[in-house]
């Protein structure tokens, strides 16, 4: 454990802390002031907080607004800014918790001085990681949530720690989250000497899967769970990465497309489908209704890509297969098709196997770093891994427990997602509906799904993608000036605390990175869809739900 964890020195910390009282009643030299007491209590957590023998305090320190925090264990693959600037005065607690003889999880609790509402928030992870979501934590702590982030049982966006250590896979599937949820609540109760009033979860992608794991198996822990682009039916999703890579990934194949050629195909698909919703704005409002004719982009005799930006028949065949669902050994659906209109992820044409599939199979499934996706992938193997379903990682159960708990789930998924096809979330919603024999009106009291047209994977996209979710706020400048009301997190808070269930989600079209706002659209709740009513397409009242 290194000690130099901050980008600033202890004396800088002191001077900033000493400067803080200037803004009002919180006099740092006054031992009765709330600030002083909070600081003392926080700094003493290393001695006072001992929830159990498996838990060790690594850092307990009061930090003021403006302090920069870096991750001492940051693995090179953990994305994000090198350091995160705090937006609120808070207590930072970093813990290491043993989850088995060969595994541990590292978590941080960022607990704001100003904790008026008693709200607790757990954030999720991404990919195969492994990274604590610092910038999201800074934001939600500023919003007043006592926020927990963790490494889901290993550091880094890599599967290497799974190698010959199934305990780390078990952490990744559910145990890390379950463990930090409980310990985080103890820490919050300990610091504030009062219980959590309402508990929330927010995560996207792999973090969406974690949230659904909680919704399916331990919903009692969260009053409200918000999941984006959830990586559910995990084994099938991973298999689909390998499957689509086999279709499009070989640069020496006659049917190979470069990134520029995929972009040309995307433009062709937009040309055919963008207007279906009545507005040509670069967004296909309902990709499910788009069934493009890819052959429109095929070269006539004598034409080439260089001369006419057209594709060969072999390339068009690749595109056609790429936008078809993946079927398994027995003809069963493994994974649904990509949304027409996505720009394929470079994973599928950069010549290297998609890292999540590659590393998941190597390290978690086969425990063989030499396992070769190119040579050893097969539909038999896919079926075997789906049946094996390590520690129930698939995360594909109905929501009987959630319904019984009386707690709530809000799912959203961008309809321009090139990483996890949105169709998978529709499929989950409908599966839950049939499994529980509940109509959507009957699901509404505890499960609502919002498709987000024009949104890419978790953040970005050509439409109104910003919904106040995890991994979005750090992409634009001035996120603290954007209203949080109507976004996915605060809609859930309103649902839980005021009983006002969300009918629509506020989506903002923001420029990256300036944050300049082009328009607002209110996204509809499935099975309703965004429909254009006429008038200025950038005005929110020009769109309704049908
Ligand atoms: C934190 O980082 C920001 C951006 O790098 C910098 O402007 C600021 O001075 C830093 N704050 C402290 C207290 O070091
Ligand atoms: C997986 O889920 C099944 C069915 O709920 C359960 O019986 C089993 O114990 C779980 N397995 C693991 C490893 O958690
Ligand atoms: C839900 O999906 C699972 C996994 O694909 C499947 O086994 C099950 O039959 C589905 N449930 C219904 C009611 O269709």
SSE order and pairing:
Layout: H1 10-19, H2 34-43, H3 45-48, E1 55-63, E2 68-69, E3 84-85, E4 90-100, E5 103-112, E6 119-123, H4 134-142, E7 146-150, H5 166-192, E8 198-204, H6 206-217, E9 224-228, H7 234-248, H8 259-273, H9 305-308, H10 313-322, E10 326-327, E11 333-335, H11 355-365, H12 373-376, H13 379-388, H14 400-405, E12 408-414, H15 423-435, H16 440-443, E13 447-452, H17 488-498, E14 504-510, E15 517-524, E16 530-532, E17 543-545
Parallel strand pairs: 6-7, 6-8, 8-9, 9-12, 12-13
Antiparallel strand pairs: 1-4, 2-3, 4-5, 5-7, 10-11, 14-15, 16-17
Helix pairs in contact: 7-11
This protein binds 2-acetamido-2-deoxy-beta-D-glucopyranose (NAG) (3 copies).
Walk me through this protein's architecture:
By secondary structure, the protein is α/β, with parallel strands linked by helices. Helices cover 32% and strands 17% of the residues. The chain has helices at residues 10-19, 34-43, 45-48, 134-142, 166-192, 206-217, 234-248, 259-273, 305-308, 313-322, 355-365, 373-376, 379-388, 400-405, 423-435, 440-443, 488-498, and strands spanning 55-63, 68-69, 84-85, 90-100, 103-112, 119-123, 146-150, 198-204, 224-228, 326-327, 333-335, 408-414, 447-452, 504-510, 517-524, 530-532, 543-545. The protein has a nine-stranded mixed β-sheet with strand order 1-4-5-7-6-8-9-12-13, sandwiched between helices. Strands 2-3 form a two-stranded antiparallel ribbon. The protein has a two-stranded antiparallel sheet with strand order 10-11. Helix 7 (234-248) packs across helix 11 (355-365). The longest helix has 27 residues, at 166-192. Residues 396, 431, 434-435 line the site of one 2-acetamido-2-deoxy-beta-D-glucopyranose.
